[in-house]
Amino acid sequence: MKKILVIHGPNLQLLGSREPQVYGTLALKDINSQLKLLAAKNKVSLSIVQSNHEGEICDLIGSAKNKFAGILINPAAYTHTSVAVRDAIAGCGVPCVEVHLSNIYTREAFRQKSLISPVVKGTILGFGAKSYYLGLLALLDLL
Amino acid sequence: MKKILVIHGPNLQLLGSREPQVYGTLALKDINSQLKLLAAKNKVSLSIVQSNHEGEICDLIGSAKNKFAGILINPAAYTHTSVAVRDAIAGCGVPCVEVHLSNIYTREAFRQKSLISPVVKGTILGFGAKSYYLGLLALLDLL
Amino acid sequence: MKKILVIHGPNLQLLGSREPQVYGTLALKDINSQLKLLAAKNKVSLSIVQSNHEGEICDLIGSAKNKFAGILINPAAYTHTSVAVRDAIAGCGVPCVEVHLSNIYTREAFRQKSLISPVVKGTILGFGAKSYYLGLLALLDLL
Amino acid sequence: MKKILVIHGPNLQLLGSREPQVYGTLALKDINSQLKLLAAKNKVSLSIVQSNHEGEICDLIGSAKNKFAGILINPAAYTHTSVAVRDAIAGCGVPCVEVHLSNIYTREAFRQKSLISPVVKGTILGFGAKSYYLGLLALLDLL
Amino acid sequence: MKKILVIHGPNLQLLGSREPQVYGTLALKDINSQLKLLAAKNKVSLSIVQSNHEGEICDLIGSAKNKFAGILINPAAYTHTSVAVRDAIAGCGVPCVEVHLSNIYTREAFRQKSLISPVVKGTILGFGAKSYYLGLLALLDLL
Amino acid sequence: MKKILVIHGPNLQLLGSREPQVYGTLALKDINSQLKLLAAKNKVSLSIVQSNHEGEICDLIGSAKNKFAGILINPAAYTHTSVAVRDAIAGCGVPCVEVHLSNIYTREAFRQKSLISPVVKGTILGFGAKSYYLGLLALLDLL
Amino acid sequence: MKKILVIHGPNLQLLGSREPQVYGTLALKDINSQLKLLAAKNKVSLSIVQSNHEGEICDLIGSAKNKFAGILINPAAYTHTSVAVRDAIAGCGVPCVEVHLSNIYTREAFRQKSLISPVVKGTILGFGAKSYYLGLLALLDLL
Amino acid sequence: MKKILVIHGPNLQLLGSREPQVYGTLALKDINSQLKLLAAKNKVSLSIVQSNHEGEICDLIGSAKNKFAGILINPAAYTHTSVAVRDAIAGCGVPCVEVHLSNIYTREAFRQKSLISPVVKGTILGFGAKSYYLGLLALLDLL
Amino acid sequence: MKKILVIHGPNLQLLGSREPQVYGTLALKDINSQLKLLAAKNKVSLSIVQSNHEGEICDLIGSAKNKFAGILINPAAYTHTSVAVRDAIAGCGVPCVEVHLSNIYTREAFRQKSLISPVVKGTILGFGAKSYYLGLLALLDLL
Amino acid sequence: MKKILVIHGPNLQLLGSREPQVYGTLALKDINSQLKLLAAKNKVSLSIVQSNHEGEICDLIGSAKNKFAGILINPAAYTHTSVAVRDAIAGCGVPCVEVHLSNIYTREAFRQKSLISPVVKGTILGFGAKSYYLGLLALLDLL
Amino acid sequence: MKKILVIHGPNLQLLGSREPQVYGTLALKDINSQLKLLAAKNKVSLSIVQSNHEGEICDLIGSAKNKFAGILINPAAYTHTSVAVRDAIAGCGVPCVEVHLSNIYTREAFRQKSLISPVVKGTILGFGAKSYYLGLLALLDLL
Amino acid sequence: MKKILVIHGPNLQLLGSREPQVYGTLALKDINSQLKLLAAKNKVSLSIVQSNHEGEICDLIGSAKNKFAGILINPAAYTHTSVAVRDAIAGCGVPCVEVHLSNIYTREAFRQKSLISPVVKGTILGFGAKSYYLGLLALLDLL
After folding, report:
1. CA distances from K113 to H63, J42, K80, L80 (A)
2. Angular region, I13: left φ>0, alpha ψ -120 to 50, beta rest
3. CB contact set of H107 (below 8 Å; sequence gap of 6+)
4. In whole angstroms, what is the distance from residue H102 CA to residue H88 CA?
5. What residues in I contact K51, CB-CB < 8 Å?
6. Contact by Cβ (8 Å): J116, J100
7. Given an 8 Å threshold on Cβ–Cβ distance, is B14 in contact with F62?
8. How far, rounded to the nearest angstrom, does the alpha carbon of residue I115 sit from its chain's CA centroid?
9. How many domains are contained in chain G?
10. Residue F143 near residue F42 (C-beta atoms within 8 A)
11. Is J23 a catalytic residue?
12. pLDDT truncated to tens, each residue of chain H (143 aa)?
């Protein structure tokens, strides 16, 4: 059974309580449950991690080879600032799909540049929690 | 039965023969067939148009209200240059999803800016023809 | 009796139904009626066209010489992207006045640059439908 | 009888003698006479001030509330440099119309940015002295 | 008894009536009263001036030496445009503290640059009227 | 006998009457006659089109394969704004030469960037109508 | 008794020994002692943390809700690079005050932009250790 | 006997006491004495004004025609911010020479742009008080 | 018999051996032979110089008047950096045509700006050695 | 015996398996062995750390004083994004040498700026693993 | 008797014949004669060189120490492009004055930046040949 | 015995006497002696040239093939301005190492860009004269 690594970037642990008018009232655990159902239906297992630590995210990605068949990542704030996460993805040898809850291109100027997009297979953004589900489908299709 | 308007922007009629090492050998009619199958499975009908004309694309979008429940668009070159298409989407009153075959953020600088992203519900890019299928799923989910 | 060419640029056919909180509920035909009344009062006749097609707008302007004494244009989205419309105005040999419903300088950055302003006699912006009426007065005064 | 405050910004006292090939030979007092005739015809009275002093212009605008029904201003050089005049207009609670004799968008780069446009009701530019007359009509219409 | 010069920059005379949803309903005289109480408590006297005139503000600062032990200034609009006020502060030989009612870094791009910050001892911004009180405390501490 | 597609971009139908002090008094039909003579002398036939429509130009280029051995294009205003024409040339599989009547690098800043140059075989600019003749020679030499 | 979270950002553990000619000889523990005295006098307790880890700072801020009534933060280097810390503050639901020892606007260009300022209640900078004390007073006043 | 208007811009009244390590210990009155001696030797008379007020400087320049044969100006801070002074010089009809005590091109970036240079006959900068004397010689030579 | 000065700019002596996959295996002497044949056929003589020295190129151009009827130049690297060569061409009083072997607009950003284009009669680029032959034809046509 | 701290920045643990066509097949442990041999030959001992954590790297550098005589660092991705690492180096009081395997100035634009270079003694880049050996020699020479 | 080195930069040998409507009909030898008269009157001797070669100008400046008491330079085109000439002046140990015939700040954008101004004692520009004479006076005064 | 070409760029002949507080008191001949000793120890011979002439440096590099096994260059000022030297290195077919005495990334903005770095094998900067010695070692290692 193939394994997929799901990475939730910084501050996503606050989902549900954080600016609910913007991000909705769905908590991260709700998204995770949905993702697991979808994974089960597609005969893959998920390993899900949330981390606020750029280094930890790099550690995870850097050691993904031979353990995971693909990576689904919402890099959150590190989308815009982390060359380290970008290099980890580029160098890890595992296909990666990038998702975002919100449409980052409608937000502040500094969010309108993704350092991550150039090194992933594809990007899905703006569909809320459904960005994750579509992202998982896209990743499964790539494998 | 709900109807979806699918718009293929400029030069997409060349798909399959145009730079196959970049865009693959799948022709536009093949993508359209797949989209129709997927639509049928989801009980919606599709109206599919390819146009190289910015004005024609605006005409279509501007008259979509009351005729279509949603719009799936690959704006191609107009992604980067057309305020007119952007305004048409923003003003048409119909939810719209943007897709791209390639990851535009790995290409020339002038392709790394989408005038369209800020006015659509969400964007899917980089998965080749699958960007369209995921986009249709995303649109169906929004309706 | 002198003739004036009035050109409504892209998406203005949606006026009234398009984002009424922004553009008001006045439809384009209402503005046209008002313009015709004002023209009649000033002993000129109007030829009014709305087009979403950059090329069509260029065709119209390019053939205006000897047919029209002046041009009143709301270039809408093409204000910001069309060197072709700019060149048509600069080369057509007919005096032109530019109008905008909204104050484009309070909107997105890409709307804060007019390619058209440098080639017209003058510009009126921000007064809603009244921008057109003032524009027609200004044009009459120039003739 | 409603009162309108007309403000002529810096160096406009030189009109007529200043670069006549650019600004024409009409003096400021000639424009003022025309404006007064037009005001009288429309049953409003005008209070007209020319000042080279940014602070004085702010003083005038800041104290306009309850004294004037509207402001007609040609901010001249302060168009491009004065956040103070902008803030005065934004904060004064009186509707304001901005006019320019010349088409500022055909001139030096530093003149192609108006700090004032985003805080006025509308702008009229490029029609010479007629910019003022059209501006007064526009202002009367707003009241 | 030490004397402090307090300078309120352009348009601050409108405080209370100017955009109350943004700036609150506290008038400038209320802030001045609070500042005087705080000064009395700290055994210093205040000389308070509001001016819309860049030159007048320069005059005041330029003659502060030997008359005042410190300057508390809210440069308002001149924060972003006045090299003259900057030079006056840099050259006057009296320690200066800069305050702002609002958080200028959340506002328009042109307000996100302070010409004044590099020449003052320190800056306090975003706390409304309390920015003044904290600024006075900071200044007293410097003396 | 080989066929060459010659495309005259927007507003070139005005040649001769449009700003003759800039563009000369030679009309487009005169250039076309010269081009045909030159083609005949070199044993190729020409298909010549003038269009103000970006979409029409894309249609023409997109269907050139197997019909034309080469394309000679003066993209005029679309030189600076059309990613669609660029993509059409890049994808059409037919060698293309770009010409300009005037030296675009001596004109406005927005004309000093060609979106088309990077996808053509070569560019000839600044020689007036002779740019076309030299361009045809260059294209013939490439075939 | 209300609790305040005080966060010292990266490299502040070096205070006192680090470039004393710039930052003075006061060590971080000295500032902390002063802050605790001031807190005690104002009947609040402090929880003080120094961390070089962006992720750890996000963890702390993200879990501050219901534990702390306010946050006093000197983001140091992360002021200029951390969207993650910005998002943590924006999403944590606890009022936050930003302080800086030095006047960042007199330093290198990359330090003249704060990603943090737009999401805090207010900012105090340039007063050395006193920035902290004034910041604590400002925070207490907000509670 | 010809008359020359000498204008000292903002903060120059502080000369001698203001940052003497930068500007030297020579006071403005010393420079004025030297200028008068030099003028007398050259049979012209001087009218010397120092002002911190942009408007006042515009008033002076605007009324110079028929009163003065030339203007010698050190615009100081207004060099970099005043379009109004620039327009006054361009419109006044009197030849003008610009001088600066310091080499503004070795100072902060915002001082490395002169709005005034493009409208004067010539500029002399970096020679301290001698910039004035050379400037007067240059002006005399122009008359 | 008219004489033409042909100038090959820096590093062109390496042609043939320098990056042959980019520049081809044709040596400079081969191009020169072809140019001479073409010149002979057109009854003009050529004086051909290759130089790596900016000053030498300026010397040549500066003394071309009365000696040469035209200049054909490939400025190579100096295209992008030499204001001196630009000024020499602008001031020499001899018509000049600019050629480039490669399409400079498809190369590094710093090569996408020609300082020379604005001062020549026209430019031909991207046709390899044929750029020279077309350039000579263009120059002959201008004489 | 003097001790040197060697820091390998983020993702360098992947060396050898990561994009071998770019970075070669040499693993980090191979470089470390070579460095230790070279150190032994020069009578210094090495403490070698690889970390993906910006904070950890700051911790290490911040505590290097009195423990290490010098630091040899390949900041990898943090070269371009970490003000925190820069401040740690600037404040730690230990001489530091920066090395890079690849020539960062031939790569993406965002890699062509080093935040670290301005605070180190010197930089060596582009020589692959040999950059480390040369860097160690340079550091030894500085001690 | 003190000696002064006078350097005329590239293309100044063309003075008089080069664009006389811009640069006047005065030849370089006329300026040199005037300079020598002025030098003689002031008891200094001049060594005058014109060169189009950046390297030659550097050679001259680099060997000026102990031979010349001062340098008067019109760097012409090298003003805007030569870091080498700048470094030569900064390193030569001889005071230098920069002059320009024209007002470079009214010309093309690339001429509005002087690399030389920051390393000279002062600059004189815009007075035609008189810039040289004033420059010599200024230099004599510095010695 | 292999031969190495060592090139010292412009103004390096001044070393020792030029700004000794910046560049030290070591003269160029001292560095050359050290380099020759190091070369002898490594069984290579050196050919050392210092030149202020961009063209001469291009001549040398262009003719290095078959004569030299490697090039060690300190391009000095030409680092930042010479596309010609860059092209010479790229085209000469001999491996090249770039060195700088000072850390150019701590100096003026225009020095923080190297046109040369992208075409050399590697770069060493900031170690003073030792940059040369390390550079020679690096070059020897490459051969």
Report:
1. 33, 50, 6, 16
2. alpha
3. none
4. 24
5. 55
6. no
7. yes
8. 14
9. 1
10. no
11. yes
12. 899 999 999 999 999 887 777 777 899 999 999 999 999 999 999 999 999 999 999 999 999 999 999 999 999 999 999 999 999 999 999 999 999 999 998 888 899 889 999 999 999 999 999 999 999 999 999 98
CATH number for the domain harbouring residue E41: 3.40.50.9100
DSSP state of I52: S
H34-71: string of b/e by CB count within 10 Å (b at 16+)? bbeebbeeeebebebebbbbbbbbbbbbbebeeebbbb
The whole domain housing F64 covers 2-142
Q: How far apart are CA I136 and CA I73, in angstroms?
A: 10
Minimum Cα–Cα distance from L59: chain I residue:
I52
Chain C residues with CB within 8 Å of chain F CB: 53-56, 58-59, 62, 65, 81-84, 86-88, 90-93, 115
Residue of F60, F62, F56, F50 lying closest to F10 (CA atoms)? F50
Distance CA L55, CA H26 (A): 48
Residue of B59, B87, B92 lying closest to C77 (CB–CB) = B87
Burial of A38 (0-12, 13-18, 19+ CB in 10 A): middle
Per-residue pLDDT tens over the stretch C46-69: 999 999 999 999 999 999 999 999
Q: In this structure, what token pair is assigned to residue J111? A: 């890699």
Identity of residue B68: F
Strand order in the sheet with A96-100: A44-50, A2-8, A70-74, A96-100, A122-125, B122-125, B96-100, B70-74, B2-8, B44-50
Name every chain C residue with its beta carbon within 8 A of the beta carbon of F14: 62, 88, 91-92
The active-site residue out of L23, L78, L132, L133 is L23
The residues near G141 (Cβ < 8 Å, ≥ 6 apart) are E127, E130
Q: How many CB atoms lie within 10 A of CB J121?
A: 19
CB contact under 8 Å between G124 and E120, yes or no, is no
> What ipTM, to 2 d.p.?
0.94
Characterize the bridge pairing of strands G2-8 and B44-50: unpaired
Q: Are F52 and C63 in contact (CB under 8 A)?
A: no
User: In chain H, which residues have their Cβ closer than 8 Å to the Cβ of E91?
Assistant: 11, 14, 18-19
Residues A13 and G88: their CA atoms lie apart, in Å, by 10
Token pair, residue K113, equals 């930046």
Beta strands at E122-125 and G122-125: parallel, antiparallel or unpaired: antiparallel
Among A37, A127, A111, which residue's Cα sits nearest to residue A75?
A: A111
User: At residue H36, what is the residue type?
Assistant: K
Could you tell me whether strands I96-100 and I122-125 are parallel, antiparallel, or unpaired per DSSP bridges?
parallel
Tokens representing H137 are: 């010689």
Cβ contacts of B137 on chain A, cutoff 8 Å: 134, 137
Rounded-to-integer distance, Cα G76 and Cα G111, Å: 10
| Tens-place pLDDT, residues I12-60 | 999 988 777 777 789 999 999 999 999 999 999 999 999 999 999 999 9
d(CA H17, CA G142): 43
- What's the CA gap between I118 and I103, in Å, rounded? 17
* L132 classed as catalytic: no
